[in-house]
Amino acid sequence: MQRTNFGEMVCSIARTLDVIGEPWSPLILRDVWAGLTRFEQIQADLGISRKVLTERLNHLVEHGVLERRSYDRRPRHEYVLTEKGTELVDLLMVMARWGDTWLAGKAGPPVLYRHHACGEISKGDLRCAHCGEPMHAADVDLLPGPGAAG
Amino acid sequence: MQRTNFGEMVCSIARTLDVIGEPWSPLILRDVWAGLTRFEQIQADLGISRKVLTERLNHLVEHGVLERRSYDRRPRHEYVLTEKGTELVDLLMVMARWGDTWLAGKAGPPVLYRHHACGEISKGDLRCAHCGEPMHAADVDLLPGPGAAG
DNA sequence: AGTCAAAGTTCCCTAAGGGAACCCCAGTTG
DNA sequence: CAACTGGGGTTCCCTTAGGGAACTTTGACT
What we know:
two-stranded antiparallel sheet, DNA-binding
């Protein structure tokens, strides 16, 4: 499909899409996060084509989001989140929250999140890392940063 | 390409992908958020095919993320974020933060975010909406919710 | 009447996803 | 030791979606 290469763009969103923006990739990460770490498990859970799953897993490993590990002397592997991949789970939680809010309908959210610190069923909320106040679309100005185009 | 329909899945992440998971969609939202609201502006900024841009904009309007507005008696439109779309900006900020952290390299982030409340250059941080403590991958348990599959 | 610009639409070409069949490897079974 | 099994892919073909360029429409300006 001669897809445009987002990785070359001067934009952290585009670069992130270059890593996990292909179809299925976020769902694969979700599965690994949820404990489905083996090829067959993920394939069965998602119903994804084996060919595409192979491609996605390789891509995610190449980009350091997943690590491939042997768990047997037979050629058996499992995929685990690296630190880089673990930080992507924030993204999954924000996606899940938006879907819960806007797309879940009367049935309600398919999954609930219990926060260890307080033990409550809760949601993630974006806060300013500096002052702790809410930080949403209307709360920020965008300024050119050091990595902005020349 | 006979793409699998994520919208039917019992998963808020998959449903969210059904709305904004296609290639280019998050970048289109980024542009609209950043003030590029017209077809020609977005097309020129992204270098996206006009055909695909038309498809994506229609899709986002159909799903209530963008609204199409006339700004002239001539057939001129601009696209603006609805409330539903504005809440998706959280997702963009989290993507941007991850890209800033892991992909920006020595040049540093292309864009900085100044938080209105404190005036500082900052980042969004995921906190528990209930207790305010950090809420990341290792801080939560996943439980089946009311909308879980039967 | 002729020009202009925004916003699409149409057409062709190529590449990517779906699906099913096939393969390889190292244990396990008989 | 031959056959079987199950995880983890690879290969092949078919269809469809993205890229790119050309063309169209609409109302306003000159």
